[in-house]
Amino acid sequence: MKIKLIASLLFCVSANGLMAQQKDWVNYVNTLQGTNSKHELTRGNTYPTTALPFGMHTWTPQTGRNGDGWKYQYFKDKIRGFQQAHQCSSWTRDYAVFSLMPMVDELVVDENKRETKFSHNDEIAKPNYYRVKFENNITTEISPSERGAHLRFSYPKGKKSFLVLDGYTRLSGVQIHPKENKITGWVNNGEGFRRGWKSYFVVQFDQPIKSFGTWENKKNTVNADSTTAEGLGKGAYIQFADGAKVQAKTASSYISAPQAELNLKRELGADKTLEQTKANAAAVWNKSLGKVEVEGGSKADTETFYSCFFRASLFSRKFYELNEAGKPYYFSPYDGKVHDGYMFTDTGFWDTFRAQFPLNTLVQPEMHGRYMQAMLAAYEQCGWLPSWSFPSEAGSMIGNHAISLFADAWAKGIRTFDPQKALDAYYHEAMNKGPWGPANGRDGVKEYNEMGYVPYPKYREATAKTLEYAYDDYCAYQLAKMVGNKHYMQVFEKPMYNYKHVYDAGTRFMRGKDAKGNWSPNFDPTEWGGPFTEGNAWHWQWSVFQDTEGLINLMGGDKNFTAKLDSVFSEPNKVNVGTYGGMIHEMTEMVMANMGQYAHGNQPIQHMVYLYNYANQPWKSQFHARQVMKKLYDATENGYPGDEDQGQTSSWYVLSALGFYSVTPGTGEYVLGSPAFKKITINLENGKKFIIDAPANDDGHVYIKSATLNGKPYTKNFINHADLLKGGILKLQMDAQPELKRGLQEGEKPFSLSNGNFTTFEKN
User: What is the pTM assigned to this prediction?
Assistant: First the structure.
């Protein structure tokens, strides 16, 4: 009996231990996911970010030269510094950067000569903790706060111990405070800021400074015993006692040097050791990642899910700070002034309106509500709604997708902003062309308003622009409809159907059309570029988010529509490089994926697998969603099928793994696919839980045979955001064979303008 009791107790202890371990979601994350990237082939274009969710500053090891967008590449074996970073894409330059680099034996400031070898076997990369041991036996550790980091440099015994602060590119200033064991300073690097801005930093050490000096990184000249320097690429170096173990706490501010000190004191002042910061950061991440708990998948699937969820929780970045009273305020990258309230930045809406922001509406609604306010503040400060903020407005890519965020938020009950101001701002966006890039205002606005499409070749990427403008106009119409604004309903009711003007019934493809109404000659649907953005006609055929049924009608009905969807996967994966003139990485990634013309590594086609739900073959959406998850994602350094893009490609995976996707932001609907786990619990901010329960789910059982929502039969191919917020259980009976008769009635299909099947969110 005693033996049985002991065995029982041991079992309970073991089970409790496993449960506790299971709740430690941060340990499933690999921040090296997607880091094995280069210009010709991107497997994510990520870097091993050490940060808190949506943190203002992040930290990363640096393998690339100062100013190189590929700041960390997995295949390299030398590190030259540990950076404060903000970069959201390798194709854009970073800003507000400085770095720290430890070294032994002799002082070397030149970034190319100071780089030191390491092995991935000596590297740990988690959201709350990064650690690497160099071949020279220096160990560097980093744990994050929202606006800073806690670092520790452990030098080998008996070795001279130096630390170099590099001011990165452009202007910087440093001041060494030997008696206080501290360095303060500022950097001014990056694009788009008003002249004279500064990112102020402070670095506080827990060990005495033995010797010191300043240097500059253009000619690598050193000034021993100098305590101050300002100018191009100015930096500092300090020396500690031989073989020291040094903790360094650092924080930065865009507002002032005193605010940087306040950020340091508030966020890291109580942490005597890096272990405390590490534990605090783990708790923050476990709370954030624990908003979605997955069970019943393989360890690899769980690691992929939480690694993607981590990436989906980095952007947009907080750009605000807390004053002495704890109230939010921020330096505006738009007008260069300090304002009260919230500001966010570092995202491109062309990528993120599709899944990253819809995911936030579900798991981060309070923050998302603040984001809506920040977008209107940005409009007031620079005269335009943001489209690509990095950190100010760049106007990159295409479309005017801020309105998608406003409409989607309102449809889901997030009503923290004035919809009249949002509509006025969008009207200004839609009727004018701004000074920065094609997505600042509307490229081809005159022709679009007069002819209903953007003509090609007069404007680059004209057909893609037409399609996305039409969707954005739908969002404006829908927001106006939800708030009863008849004026803007009338303004945008007609142009939201403009997608029809670039559809060629003869080829059954979207096409380029010139100002006289002639289709572009020598049409090849595999030709990239020209009237399309980073894709071809196979990819852009489906960008009618607001009216899939209207597209089905144009293409001659469900049979023709699903046959063309099938053809995306069955067509040869050949590439006509078109106006690009050569293979770009998106083309290479499509060929490598070996899924026909399906190019999941870029955004335009990512919603396509869910469109079978609109045309009486929902089971194919279930099949293909699972195939894409399984074939194109994992948690390794090769974990993505292309650019990760500020959380979008990760958010596609997170939503798809839940079993649904946001095909049409602005409707409040999610279109069903096939969940990747047996049980998923969404812990909502309102305190309720929504559970997706699919006990028979595995790689061989990907099809939904039947479903119940809170015990009642559920036959729809979509689910409303409002139903999720109520909490409850969506129980799915999964099968190895497709159910060909489920979800075929009109009321069971997701929203399209042409079927009008739409219910908006209603507050209780």
Answer: 0.95
